[in-house]
Design a protein that fits this description.
The protein has 315 residues and is an alpha/beta fold. The protein is 24% helix and 27% strand.
């Protein structure tokens, strides 16, 4: 493919959640003239989250999309250029680094800050895909409200699933928790909370066969793996809480990652194994996965990038 002109930039930020925007705020104030490519989900996961009540500085809480809009405006105020587009391939084999946007535009960057986040994992059932947004959801906090007073099911066994089941139990009449094994992976405190909630019923050794319904969810067929018996749960909402997948595939040829695809950064820093490439937020954090920790690591990435450029004499 013929590329006409390669744009040369000092600091490229890929991704636009709390990590990307915070990196941009710091990088712009340090005169790195950052350019953000927003990716497939501008604003990141928080744009599908309604209430954000645990971010410092919002005593009354705020809405996820509004908070991302605030961060975006703050980044722009200091001179960040924010663009539509997704990184479709990278070449980190030489310096400066080359990144291809939407398969046709090439940018050459002295520093690259990766803030591409993570996406919810799905079960992979055709019925799940068909009814996604019509009773099937990967975010109880966003969509639980719509099922107030109804019966719902949630699949998953970790802390997130337990937390979301607990959240749903406050809104819904009944919550079925579908757990594949004979125990949960969630922390003891979270398990305790779920088992002590009267309207949560945990179905151990169960798997999801099919989600039922045409225009919306009417039930779910589950299989008891101990006796091989199927049953149908009458529900109107089905929540998937089986973890997240880091959006890191495009960087795989060059960056060190753990077995789940999270980018590995050097201890107490955002440095990857490639000099001048930094990673922050949920693409490298599978432990905390909070807006505030993502923002904190975005700040670290910008400072690391600035120091890298200063040491190279490129500032």
């Amino acid at each position: 493919m013929e590329h006409t002109e390669i744009e040369k930039i000092k600091c490229l930020i890929i991704g636009s959640g709390p990590a990307g925007y915070t990196a941009a705020i710091y990088a712009a104030r340090a005169d790195l003239k950052p350019i953000i490519y927003q990716g497939l989900q501008p604003g990141g996961q928080l744009t599908i989250t309604t209430e954000v009540e645990n971010f410092p500085g919002y005593p009354e809480g705020t809405q996820g999309p509004e908070m991302m809009e605030d961060l975006k405006k703050q980044a722009e105020r200091f001179g960040t250029e924010i663009r539509w587009g997704t990184a479709t391939s990278v070449d980190f084999s030489s310096f400066p680094h080359r990144v291809t946007i939407d398969e046709n535009k090439v940018v050459e960057a002295n520093t690259v800050i990766i803030a591409t986040g993570a996406s919810a994992k799905w079960l992979g059932l055709p019925s799940e895909q068909k009814l996604n947004g019509f009773g099937v959801s990967a975010c109880a906090v966003c969509d639980g409200f719509f099922f107030r007073g109804q019966d719902v099911a949630i699949v998953g066994a970790g802390d997130t699933a337990a937390e979301e089941a607990s959240y749903l139990s406050k809104l819904c009449r009944k919550v079925y928790m579908i757990v594949r094994r004979d125990e949960m992976r969630a922390s003891k405190a979270m398990q305790h909370r779920v088992t002590n909630t009267p309207n949560i019923e945990i179905l151990y050794n169960h798997t999801t066969v099919e989600i039922l319904g045409e225009q919306g969810v009417t039930g779910v067929k589950v299989l008891n793996t101990l006796n091989n018996k199927e049953r149908i749960l009458d529900i109107t909402g089905f929540f998937v809480a089986i973890g997240h997948e880091p959006n890191s595939k495009v960087f795989k040829p060059y960056l060190e990652m753990d077995k789940n695809g999270y980018i590995i950064t050097r201890l107490d820093s955002t440095h990857t194994n490639i000099e001048g490439v930094f990673a922050c937020g949920d693409v490298q954090d599978h432990i905390y996965r909070q807006a505030v920790t993502a923002a904190g690591s975005g700040c670290m990435a910008a400072i690391d990038a600035e120091r890298f450029l200063a040491n190279k004499g490129l500032h």
